[in-house]
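Appendix B. One record, verbatim.
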Amino acid sequence: MQPLTVSNPLLFQNLFQSTKPGPRTLVLSDQDLLALVFSNFLPDDPLVLPRAEIVNGRKQLRNIALTCKAFKNPALDRLWIYLDSLLPLIKVLPNLKVLHGQYYFSGRLSQDSKFRLYARKLRTLAIGSETESPQPTQMISPSLYHLITQELGEDILFPNLQHVIVHPSQDDTNNINFTAQLPWAFASSVKAAAFCGRGISRPLFAEFCFPLAQKLLSNLRHLSLKAAETAPPTGVLEAVMGMNNLESLDLQLPGPNVSLGHILARTMGSGNPCQPRDVTKPAPSRFGRAFPSLSGLAPICERH
């Protein structure tokens, strides 16, 4: 074989340089860099932002994903890390039907469907609302959750879900749309859960929602109970004492509560450095030592 010879070295040099990727190509091909840039539109914890900024950030990410092929995947990865309603995800289902203003599903759900793809990206999910106004998820037929669960089989819908925020329904008689979402929201991968609003004082929360969370959230490490007007029933706070794997507990409840006093006193007895005021240590509890893994406690009780 004859050795390669070049009669014009300058021409060869220009040809070699022309094949080297330029700065623009290098940036567009660096998916990690693009992911970091796009995180400025929607941070890992979107809840630190006002809702208007979250909505605006999601719109910008959607537009960015349509700009060029290189932006599509990192922009969609960031766009789908947070949902405050399941409706956007439901809308990408194949074979979706709209009848009388409600969404129904029929057919099969392939492994490469957009629904499965985007569901795997979800990190933070909020369900329910602080207000009594109609929710977007009321447009979803409750049968849809059951049919999708059947299609999934043993697959986990949200394998990367880390944080769930639940505003329990305040209506104990008209809650089928809310309760149908709970098995999806309470994924075993969830590490942090917050239950907020007036709904935590209702029997639906105490007798169904919270017990279901205890059963399904097997890897829960961080729990928050937040209510400005009414505290949860005594049974809920007693159940909290049995959650021995918690590493942090955030209680923001109105007024002094005897059961809350039990929790704090038992926690103080285990050596936690937090020393709340106005808490009377009760008689020894039947629960034994509470929260052996607890490293953070944030009790806030407001008197009205």
